[in-house]
Design brief:
single chain, 81 residues, alpha+beta, SH3 type barrels, 5-stranded antiparallel β-sheet, 38% strand
C-alpha cells in the first residue's frame, strides 16, 4: 500500500529540497518534480518527493481526511488491547 501525505512547505533550499510540515511533524522533501513551489504551499508528499501542489481548499480537505484516518486508526489500535 502506498501513502501520500499532504504537507505544508516551510523551507526551500538552493538544491530544490526543503522541509515540509504536517501535524507537528517535519520532514526533508525533494521538490524537483514540481516547478513552482514556494514557502507556504501545500503539496502531496510520496516517498520523500513532492508530487502534486494543492490549493488551500484542497489542502484543508486532504488534511482533515488524513486527520480523520489517523484518529480512526488510533481507535482501532486502542480496541485491540
Amino acid at each position: 500500500m502506498c501513502l501520500a501525505v499532504p504537507m505544508k512547505i516551510i523551507e526551500i533550499n538552493e538544491n530544490r529540497t526543503g522541509i515540509a510540515e504536517s501535524g507537528g511533524v517535519s520532514r526533508k522533501v525533494n521538490l524537483k518534480l514540481l516547478d513552482d513551489c514556494a514557502i507556504g504551499d501545500y503539496v502531496i508528499i510520496h516517498a520523500g518527493f513532492a508530487i502534486e501542489k494543492l490549493d488551500e481548499e484542497q489542502a484543508a480537505k486532504s488534511v482533515a481526511l488524513f486527520d480523520e484516518l489517523v484518529q480512526a486508526m488510533s481507535g482501532i489500535q486502542g480496541q485491540s488491547r
